[in-house]
Amino acid sequence: MSESFKLFRLQQIDSIIDKGQARLAEIDRLLADNFEIRLSKQNYEQTQRNFFEAEQNLRVAEENVKQQRLKIERSQAALYGGKISNPKELQDLQHESEFLKKYLVTLEDTQLEAMLELDEAETVTIQASQELKDTEQKVAEQKQILEREKSDLLHELEVNESERAAAASTIDSRAITLYNTLREQKNGRAVAQVIEKSCAACGSTLTASTFSSAQMPNKITRCDACGRILYAG
Fold first, then answer.
1. Residue 104 pLDDT level (bands cut at 50, 70, 90)
2. Which domains does the chain have, with CATH numbers?
3. Which of 44, 60, 102, 151 is the most buried (most CB within 10 A)?
4. How many alpha carbons lie under 13 Å from residue 44 in its C-beta half-sphere?
């Protein structure tokens, strides 16, 4: 078994490990991400604030109507109580009473609007509460799936690491050192297959001497263009 094949096989294992570790990192990020819940909770809290504000507006409107009705009662009592006989004063009281009644209509309209706004705010709050519960349940289910996947990946990585250690133990230490250096320099791809007399990594056509050298089982040959170790199969 040639050194280049051993290194190529080692790279295949490392690629699987790299992919697994990348997915594990993504899973950890997803497990830590509570954006959907935060957004749903913020929406629910805002609807609660709107509901409390609508409640306060209704209480103010109800109190305004109550006070206006008391004013009308006092005006009516003064107008028809018989204590005032001056025509001018009676006329002024009559005008005041009419004004108070007209303004009461306006206040009652405001009260009705406040009641409708409170009803709507309550409906929206109930919907937001349900949406929050649904989101929490959905996220919990998604995280259960991710936790299972993470557990499976950790087991697979343990197996792959053992396989890697066994594969690396059969390779010359100098070749391993070169391989590790190239892995760091070449974005994880230290070994390139030779396909149709070309380097599969960079696409460069190999010279006749490089291609011939790459076919020798006990010789490590590197691509003249990208420097990767060549595996001719």
1. very high
2. 1-27+172-233 (1.10.287.1490), 34-168 (1.10.287.1700)
3. 44
4. 17
